[in-house]
TrEMBL record, chains A, B:
One of the protein's GO biological processes: isopentenyl diphosphate biosynthetic process, mevalonate pathway
HAMAP family: Mevalonate_kinase (MF_00217)
Source organism of the structure: Candidatus Methanodesulfokora washburnensis
The keyword Zinc is assigned to this record: no
NCBIfam families, alphabetized: mevalon_kin (TIGR00549)
Family indicated by similarity: Belongs to the GHMP kinase family. Mevalonate kinase subfamily.
A GO cellular-component term linked to this record: cytosol
Role description: Catalyzes the phosphorylation of (R)-mevalonate (MVA) to (R)-mevalonate 5-phosphate (MVAP). Functions in the mevalonate (MVA) pathway leading to isopentenyl diphosphate (IPP), a key precursor for the biosynthesis of isoprenoid compounds such as archaeal membrane lipids.
Cellular compartment(s): Cytoplasm
This protein's name: Mevalonate kinase
Domain of life the protein comes from: Archaea
Known catalytic reactions: (R)-mevalonate + ATP = (R)-5-phosphomevalonate + ADP + H(+)
Keywords on record: ATP-binding, Cytoplasm, Isoprene biosynthesis, Kinase, Lipid biosynthesis, Lipid metabolism, Magnesium, Nucleotide-binding, Transferase
Amino acid sequence: MPKFSEAIAPSQAFLYGEHAVLYGSPALAMSVDVKTRARVTEVEDRIIEIRSDRFPEGLRWRYDEEQPEENPLLPLAYGLRDLMKRYEFNKGLIVEISSDVPVNSGMASSASVSAAISAAFLSLVGESPEKYLLLDIVYEFERRIHGRASKTGPACAVLGGLVWIEWRDGNMEVSRIDSKDDLSIVISCSGLLSETKKLVSMVSKRYNEIRDVMDRIMHAISALTVEGRKAIEKRDLVRAGELMNINHGLLSAIGVSNYVLDEIVWTMRRLGAYGAKLSGAGGGGCVIGLSENPEVLAKNLSASYPSFAAKVSLEGVRVIR
Amino acid sequence: MPKFSEAIAPSQAFLYGEHAVLYGSPALAMSVDVKTRARVTEVEDRIIEIRSDRFPEGLRWRYDEEQPEENPLLPLAYGLRDLMKRYEFNKGLIVEISSDVPVNSGMASSASVSAAISAAFLSLVGESPEKYLLLDIVYEFERRIHGRASKTGPACAVLGGLVWIEWRDGNMEVSRIDSKDDLSIVISCSGLLSETKKLVSMVSKRYNEIRDVMDRIMHAISALTVEGRKAIEKRDLVRAGELMNINHGLLSAIGVSNYVLDEIVWTMRRLGAYGAKLSGAGGGGCVIGLSENPEVLAKNLSASYPSFAAKVSLEGVRVIR
């Protein structure tokens, strides 16, 4: 039997601070127990082959002979090739991906898949990297996929738990904060794609045009993220929800909400959520909400939008085989 | 024929800065050519009688004999009694009000009616007050009606045109800015009451609880109001609309939008508005939008919400008889 390795990684919900985290704000995100699984198998042919339940066309590339064709899986292939070089792995790989994380949902499916692939590959070549080294590797994948991206998705996928991102001396630093296992959220999917790269560059354009206004909005997000962390640490869901609502308004102000996201947000609030906001880049993707009883809320929401309750994943990426 | 006098006054739309103007921000508002008319007739009986097309129960009060009963027109009666004392008018008044301004719409119907009544009364007693004195009189009425209120509604009703409100040495100062007569907006009514007093106190409560966050949002509104003035003065409707959208997001963040207002805002934008926002206290009331062709937009919106195009009223309150 060919040599293979397999890993699973959680996904992400942004509790507070998306977008603003690219402008100096801190952010608070939650690893979500909706996961991606990747199996990496060594083959003698110098190929990178990726099979994915989400992109059935797949990708197959003789990486030292051919120009690759345009393909949504290509950034993963490039990332893998870099990793193979770095670990002097001169054979080929077949990568099989299956994921419960919706693509372009704001749930960092790309970071989740990158973490699962990276961890499986490293296990295959006999490495057990320290978590923060793995985080850097996954962050490299993310930058290939999204351009300017935060470390949030990689941190949720690699570290698990509740993740705090802040800037120190010009660097984005990531740490886990104290977390009990009782934090659950409701996630509702808009069915519209959230295109991180496009939205990040739209916000950046607006930032350059009306910097004074945008700077102050980013500062407001920064302040509410600090308050949000306190509320989450105290499990004060009422306050945490109010701050989510404020955060959603500020995300609308910077231009990344839309009609469907606002409708879901209001539906959640009317059904009793303490607060609701878009999560991630916006423009589509998911809305998250806080509630006393996420299971019931998710069930009630399901009449209108695909919705589910999700727990924090205390565990980050893990090699399972 | 008994002695009488009659005046008409415009109403208001808030282009930028409502709520924040109570926290030190400037604001830009527009006098709207949807007007209130008041006729004030002198009678020998020492009564204040108010007849209104909006409050058909009316009010009749022997002001030096009786305790007044609870009545929505009572703040107007109190304001009138003060004015009568100030001008040593010892008879009685019958006030007839007819208005095209929706009540509790965020269009400052109360300031419009107060301006029309005050101007008519002053004309009746032979006074032709300077505009800024009249403004102070109308502002007194407003404070009786709304508690903590801005000078914006009174300024729009009294001065006409585009009105700029800013703070100097702790005082709210009001001035007209250069305005051509070509500025039109679309106004759509939610059909929900906008209760200024309640919303202002809700924002104030939130302000005291999370001051750091709220302060920064107010600063952002302040900055966009300054940018909005520039855009309006240049008639750059694209930029002015973008800033309206940002302002609406920030109003959502401080908690004064709701599902219906957001729905109208998105409908306006989808129908081609450059920008749209709630106008006034929020919680209900009207949404305003900027468009290349406000008449057409209003017509298209009318399928969903009572909507109309409205021009700036270059003229403030005016005695007509």
